[in-house]
Amino acid sequence: MSAHCCNHEVEQNAPRTQGYRRILWIALAVNLLMFAVEIGSGMRAGSVSLLADALDFLGDSANYAISLWVLGLGLAVRARAAQFKALSMLLFGLGVLAVALWNAWRGVLPDAPTMGLVGSLALLANLGVAALLYGYREGDSNMRSVWLCTRNDALGNLAVLLAALGVFGSGTAWPDLLVAGVMASLAISAALQVLRQAHGELQAGGGREHG
């Protein structure tokens, strides 16, 4: 994704692009595996924060797949892909809020030990992916969207662990529901950041085309 439309720049950035491509494939595999683990565990535990995290892993899998598709293409294509992913993040955030309200209305009490165990596993997975992506965090809007998603995932995992402690200590579902709200806010905030950057890239690209 670091390559631009100029052929000379593509050649110069080829090693960096290939390294990024390998990292995205690893991230895609990790996220698909963790989605399967968390969706099952979240349903058994009755935890909305685990279900939200599972859906986040699925969304990130699509994020990485799209990033692999646009890797090496022009800036405008990458920016539009970033817009699509940002809108997906925005919908995810709104969806989590809806599920949290639904669980609050139903009065579901999640299983704290399951939340803690699965949340710890998810945190380790996301920290590993974040470490691989750290060197690409200041790229274009598409690269930035990948980094922000992964960073938010790690923060979300920490929040799930805190929610597990809160549910265990209080015997209520409110810590789980509050964490779901925090995760939704992170998704919405990151989506707005990426949308602004992608819009700027498209505006700048349009200016160069007409210049």
Automatic annotation (TrEMBL):
Q: How does it sit in the membrane?
A: Multi-pass membrane protein
Give me the segments passing through the membrane.
23-41, 61-79, 86-105, 117-134, 154-171
UniProt-annotated location(s): Membrane
UniProt keywords (A-Z) are:
Ion transport, Membrane, Transmembrane, Transmembrane helix, Transport, Zinc, Zinc transport
Question: Residue ranges of the Cation efflux protein transmembrane domain?
Answer: 24-198
Note whether Transport occurs among the keywords.
yes
Asked if the Swiss-Prot or TrEMBL record annotates the protein with the keyword Transmembrane helix, the reply is yes
One CC-aspect GO term: plasma membrane
GO molecular function terms listed in the Swiss-Prot or TrEMBL record: zinc ion transmembrane transporter activity
**Tree of life domain:** Bacteria
- Could you tell me which PANTHER family the record lists for this protein? CATION EFFLUX PROTEIN/ ZINC TRANSPORTER, RE54080P-RELATED
* Name under which the protein is recorded: Co/Zn/Cd efflux system component
Specify the species.
Answer: Pseudomonas pohangensis
